[in-house]
Amino acid sequence: MAKFGPGLIVAAAFIGPGTITTASIAGAQYGFTLFWALAFSIVTTLILQEMAARLGIVGRLGLAEALRQSIRQPWLKWPALILVITAIGLGNAAYQTGNLLGAAVGAEILTGIDAPLLAAIIALLAAGLLASGVYRLIEGALIFLVGIMSLVFIAAMLIEPPSLALIKQQLLPPALPDGALLSVIALIGTTVVPYNLFLHANAVQQKWSAAGNTHRALHEARLDLGLSIGLGGLITLAIMATAATSLFGNNYDGPVNAASIALQLEPVLGSWAKYFVAMGLFAAGLTSAITAPLAASYAVCGALGWPMDMHARRFKLVWLAVIVFGAGFAIVETQPMTAILIAQAANGMLLPVIAIALVWVMNQTALLGKEKNGWLSNLLATVVILITLGLGGHKLWSLIGN
Predict the structure, then answer these.
(1) pLDDT score of 136
(2) According to the model, what pLDDT value does residue 375 have?
């Protein structure tokens, strides 16, 4: 564990209720057809998070701070910062709704208490952990629980391995089935989490100090990121594969919820599967319910030049607003899995906006010197931005057309 750093936090943040739900829905409804979307998401995460790590280690700034300092023209500076504040604030509020609902669904199975009430209790718990300053210890325990659940998904995939012939038949050539666009955007949104770009740039500064060797820090950060995101991608693949085998492979046509997700684990856990899924959903939801508001505070405070101290009053007010907003929608929501899927899709549509801002910052010679983006980084990022813009634009056009 000592070899891992902020990359593990990034991976743990995207392996939340959204990933479990979205990957299960994709596998249950489309089999292995959308594996290409998962592969694209993992590669995109590596490309963008490496830039965020480089920004934090070399520039010693978070993404929002870098935007505020790099944009000189007032007519451009404030609209850009307002866009970031609004996008991250609203995006994290939507994400927070999915986090709280995912945790509440898990807790409902364990306790029998109604999910809306549990969502409110979990929101208070997340707020209390952030306010206390000891949330990192709790987060470590929850990441451990999510990790155990992830190992079970991998074991389930190995016990009932998918047919390689079926994978090849469904995966090649890559296709977008009718009605699958929302699932594709959600898969991207649940893996390439926009707020992780803000969180990562600040977290690497705590791991690698300015007094250290920059070249070595960058090497360690890239190794940490590759191992962590690779592990996260394997977990997501295992979830999708078990859903494709146990649900799509058996022509399951019912709703995808906590009960159907538990079906995937019955070969490993038998009758205990639903309780294990419940524990994992609760742990994953609460972990993400802590990191999402924290990232929003870093983004908003960095953009406005406020102190980024967890004990600062305005820093606390930002994460509290995200929790309250997310809890409000979680309490009135009656279809948790739908809300979680929509939250991931919202993140997917927000991604190109944040990616454009990141790439612009990463080309500032005054900030990064020789470590600024080269032509290959810019080319890869441009491809990512164009693809995500195309997917999001197509979805918006289809919604307007309806």
Answers:
(1) 67
(2) 94
156: Cβ contacts below 8 Å, ≥ 6 apart: 238, 242, 246, 264, 265, 267, 268
Task: Say if residue 15's pLDDT is above 90.
Answer: no
Whether residue 242 contacts residue 264, with contact meaning beta carbons closer than 8 Å, is answered with yes
Which positions ≥6 away from 285 have C-beta within 8 Å?
A: 16, 17, 99, 100, 101, 102, 103, 104, 105, 106, 122
3-state secondary structure at position 215: helix
How far is the C-alpha of 397 from the C-alpha of 147, rounded, in Å? 39
Helix 336-361 to helix 375-401 angle (10° resolution) is 140
Alpha-carbon separation of residue 337 from 28, 47, 257, 384, 387 (angstroms) = 14, 29, 6, 27, 26
Q: What is the pLDDT of residue 34?
A: 92
3-state helix vs strand vs coil in the chain, percent to 5: 80, 0, 20
Across the chain, which distance is largest between two alpha carbons, in Å?
A: 62
Q: Which residue has the tokens 């979830």?
A: 239
Supply the pLDDT for residue 102.
85
| Rounded-to-integer distance, Cα 51 and Cα 53, Å | 5
Alpha-carbon gap, residue 384 to 10, rounded angstroms:
19
Give the pLDDT of residue 220. Answer: 93
Q: How many CB atoms lie within 10 A of CB 188?
A: 28
Confidence band for 340, pLDDT divided at 50, 70 and 90: low
Q: Which residue has the tokens 């030049």?
A: 305
Q: Which residue has the higher pLDDT, 3 or 84?
A: 84
Q: Which strand (E) or helix (H) includes residue 177?
A: none
Comparing C-alpha atoms, which of 246, 318, 342, 324 is closest to residue 27? 246
**Do the beta carbons of residue 126 and residue 323 sit within 8 Å?**
yes
**Ranges of each domain in the chain:** 6-62+114-286+336-401
| Element at 308 (helix H, strand E) | none
pLDDT band at 183 (very low <50, low <70, confident <90, very high): confident
The residue-averaged pLDDT of 252-277 equals: 76
